[in-house]
Amino acid sequence: MADALRVHRYPLRDGIRPTPEFAKKKLAQFSVNVGIKCGHGCTYCSSGALLRCHVGFKHAGESPFKHGYCIVDPDIPEKVARDAARRRNRGMIQLCTTVDAWCPGAQQYVVGRRCLQAILEQPGWTVRILTKNAAVVRDFDLIQEHRDRVVVGLSLTGTAACESALSVVEPLASPISERMDAMRRAHELGLRVYGMLCPLLPGIADSPEQIEELVSFVKDCGAEEVFAEAVNSRGPGLRDTAESLRQAGFLEQAEAVSRIRKRPQWSAYTTGLIRSLQASLRRHGLIDQFRFLLYPSALLASDADSIRSDDAGVIWL
Asked: Among residues 156, 163, 241, 252, which one has the least CA distance to residue 203?
């Protein structure tokens, strides 16, 4: 699939950077990113809005809001190795926060494994892997050697029954069934695992029954923590997602996504998502491991008050 992408190279300055925002999320104190544009092509991605002013897009001649290409730094592992050795204060690194280190394009340069190896060669660092690509299983041998220092997560954006719709909005990510297989394999190998249920799109993966299935699955995989998040409404992602679903014939799902472009509907969707997750996690005895990442600015005041009345697991950002 990487051959279907326009793969651009762009040099990044830093290998390892402090990440205060992800520290607030209780994910990691530091981040590694392998580029500025992921190759998975997820229509709902908000990274384009976040990185839209980066000079790398002008260098590549691409729009940060379009898809069909990726921008990676093939030399990022050497920069990670440099920073991993130099930094005196060490802690958890998320690999990655904006650009998936196992996405098509990144795989072409094997940057995921090379960055992971560069970090683990230095003591004092731990790594949280987050990917939507089952290709990470190729590196389980390396992770096994450092099993106490690496926690593996594959983003689950729905159940296996949702694959057809999700393949439209995550065209180059691994199918959900393959991500689940990778998580099962990690658990079988005794690797540390966490759950990332994000984003659970309305009309596709936000029903109580679907959430129950996902929570049960990550529990069976021995998840240390369970993170979740509503889809980010920033940028053109919701519009693009609804249009892609509509063109593919998923009309009900497209309407559900389009509906939450309005603030009252997004607020209600987010509130319902939190309540369904809390209920399921309580049934499974995992409420203490729950981490719902919530940006409250788009919530209606009434919904914010409702959530505060029972905000178990909610991280207010």
From this structure: 252
pLDDT over 90 at 81, yes or no? yes
Taking residues 28-41, report their average pLDDT.
96
Q: 226 has which bridge partners?
A: 195, 290
pLDDT recorded at residue 52: 79
Sequence-distant (≥ 6) Cβ neighbours of residue 244 within 8 angstroms? 43, 168, 169
Q: Amino acid letter at 154?
A: L
| E-state strands within 252-303 | 290-294
CATH architecture designation of domain 2-316 = Alpha-Beta Barrel (3.20)
User: pTM for this structure?
Assistant: 0.95
Do residues 34 and 101 lie in contact, with contact meaning Cβ atoms separated by under 8 Å? yes
CA distance 236 to 25: 24
Query: Would the pLDDT of 1 be above 50?
Result: no
